[in-house]
User: Fold this.
Amino acid sequence: MSPLIETERLTRILPETVPVTLVKDVTLSIGEKEFVAVTGPSGSGKSSLLYLLGLLDSPTSGTLKIGGRDTGPMDEKERSRTRLSMMGFVFQFHFLLPEFTARENVEIPMRKLRRLERSQIRERASELLISLGLAEHLDKRPDQLSGGQRQRVAVARSLANDPPIILADEPTGSLDSKSSEQVFEILQHLVRERGKSIVAVTHDLEMAARMDRRIHLVDGKIAEVVPG
Ligand SMILES: Nc1ncnc2c1ncn2[C@@H]1O[C@H](COP(=O)(O)OP(=O)(O)OP(=O)(O)O)[C@@H](O)[C@H]1O
Assistant:
């Protein structure tokens, strides 16, 4: 079976007067049920790599396959569909839509993919939020929730279309230590019990050591791969 994510010399250079190298020659392979950390100093290209893997940005050279499919020839519509069906995103700041309730925020990616009926979408959004301990908060808006609760809504939203891959950029970066541990354990559970693959950018080396593998970037390149 092909890996879920496979890159070959993935590179992103910004065409400025003095070109800026964000990601350089990154070759990696991420299989099912893997929990992978991406670490590195500030400005080393961690977020840029995650954006490339998430089809939110395009490489200037190199290849990226998602679920065995080369993403190079895909048009924007296909990229968007691949993103919606194959990946969920969790960012440091939750990016929930402020005017919508927790449940509506989780419903949005399902509405975009249009695989389920309205009533099924509503039911699934509720189930996801309940499974993340948010039963009492389904109808609250983000500003009525704590930081940890908001981040759990963001995790529920990332799971909406049941994607095999979750890409997380500092998912616990803005949380206190208790909420941070809670969100980490949820992510760990998703890998161990639900078979998801997670790539998470983190500054927290203790947390990274609890994952399966750590990819350490320096100046946009893989400097080291450390087993967890
Ligand atoms: N649009 C842009 N224009 C110019 N430089 C950019 C742009 N986007 C990113 N960079 C630069 O590219 C480098 C990599 O940025 P990136 O955000 O990927 O690093 P990072 O490792 O995630 O950093 P941090 O840990 O601080 O979030 C940085 O030096 C950044 O300043």
Summary: The longest helix spans residues 177-192. The pocket of adenosine-5'-triphosphate is lined by residues 14, 20, 22, 40, 42-48 (CB under 6 Å).
